[in-house]
Amino acid sequence: MICREGIDVTLLNVQGITKAFGGLVAVHDFSLSMDPGQIVALIGPNGAGKTTAFNVISGFYRANSGTVSFNDQNITHLRPDQICKLGLTRTFQVVRPFRGISVLDNVMIGAYSRTNDARVARSKALETLEFLGMLPEAGRLASGLPIAGRKRLEIARALATEPQLLLLDETMAGLRPAETDEVIGMVRKIRERGTGILLVEHVMRVVMSLAERIIVLHHGEKLAEGTPDAIVQNPQVIDAYLGEAHVEG
Ligand SMILES: Nc1ncnc2c1ncn2[C@@H]1O[C@H](COP(=O)(O)OP(=O)(O)O)[C@@H](O)[C@H]1O
Ligand SMILES: [Mg+2]
Q1: Residue whose CA is closest, atom 10 of ligand 1?
Q2: 132 lies in a domain?
Q3: What is the pLDDT of residues 10-61, one digit of tens each?
Q4: Which of 27, 30, 51, 94 maximizes ligand 1 atoms within 8 Å of its Cβ, making it the mutation to test the pocket?
Q5: Which domain covers residue 35, as residue numbers?
Q6: Closest ligand to Cα 173
Q7: Has residue 123 been placed in a domain?
Q8: Which pLDDT band holds residue 248 (cuts at 50, 70, 90)?
């Protein structure tokens, strides 16, 4: 918690969420809390439940139990668009821009979450593209973008919704090291504006260079939580996850 004008505010407070698909419990009794402006990483093996946790937090899945609060408001039963309006936005692991329209038009779709006025949306989208150093790509068709461009577009679209908390799901997956560095720079800039970031990421170099705190999910449950230094030395974490080869994609 931090003190904002004398009031203690927790940006995100997830309490004991469980999500099952039939008999498969994908996330079990998972809790997490974040202060405004923090960068927290959620890591763990494939199938650990990371994306499911994102889907519950952002309102795409309804939890079987547990609560999610954002800025101390209970958002557990809200829809994704309502949650987005409150300032919590996520990206998707599988990016899916509208391919037949331009980068600018895609980012405007994000901006429309806060306005119905096309001029306002356009200027917000241009401002976002400029902030992220993507103005030269504004007129390109989304379908013509390479994977790194599509990933950056996904971040720009999300940022145009003006989030206080941004959930990034494997944004660096499939990128080359130089492209990864570019996205790391973007994430740092976004955080400098005061936006909190919760990221799911496999590339440990990224996690170590960005996260203030790491949460390890394993079989749907929290295995460990701590500073990056503590996490990489945690024998249970090494056993369950870090022992696997983590080569950069
Ligand atoms: N919509 C769904 N329907 C059924 N099973 C799902 C669904 N989404 C995820 N799962 C299952 O839940 C588990 C966790 O998946 P996921 O949250 O995608 O893991 P991660 O993102 O950590 O790789 C996996 O066993 C996966 O197959
Ligand atoms: Mg996933």
Answers
A1: 26
A2: no
A3: 999 999 999 999 999 999 999 999 999 999 999 999 999 999 999 999 999 9
A4: 51
A5: 2-96+165-242
A6: 2
A7: no
A8: very low
In the chain, % of residues over pLDDT 70: 95
Using an 8 Å Cβ cutoff, are 111 and 125 in contact? yes
Q: What is the pLDDT of residue 2?
A: 54
Closest ligand 1 atom, residue 93 Cα:
21
pLDDT in tens, 206-234: 999 999 999 999 999 999 999 999 999 99
Tell me whether residue 47 is in a domain: yes
* CATH code at position 39: 3.40.50.300
Distance 58 CA to ligand 2 centre (A): 14
For the chain, the domain total comes to: 1
Number of Cβ within a 10 Å radius of residue 190: 21
pLDDT 10s digits, 76-107: 999 999 999 999 999 987 777 788 899 999 99
**Ligand 1 contact via 48 beta carbon (within 6 Å):** yes
Flag whether pLDDT at 190 surpasses 60: yes
Confidence (pLDDT) at 245? 47
The protein residue with its alpha carbon nearest to ligand 1, atom 18, reads 51
Helices assigned H by DSSP within 132-246: 147-159, 177-192, 204-210, 228-232, 235-237
41: in domain? yes
Supply the residue whose CA is at minimum distance from atom 25 of ligand 1: 47
**Does ligand 1 have an atom closer than 6 angstroms to the CB of 227?**
no
